[in-house]
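**Reference record**
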Amino acid sequence: MNEKQLAEILKYSSPTALYIVTWNNLLKLLFCPFKVLVKHHIGDLKEGEEVVVESVKVTSDLTTVFIVGGRAYFYNHFEILDD
């Protein structure tokens, strides 16, 4: 993917919002900050810890990244806690 294609995709992205599909197949829009559960020990975060996502970013290969405590972590280390 070249820079122009990436820029086109990212113009629809927001660092303060994330769309999720709920367990019953509903599309839901979450706004930062939202809570997540740490799936396994990663960095300073411990398994089972409930933390807050401050913002949502994407890498150049479009992998979702959560900013937690000012540090970036890939989304797959967390389970979103949908209230």
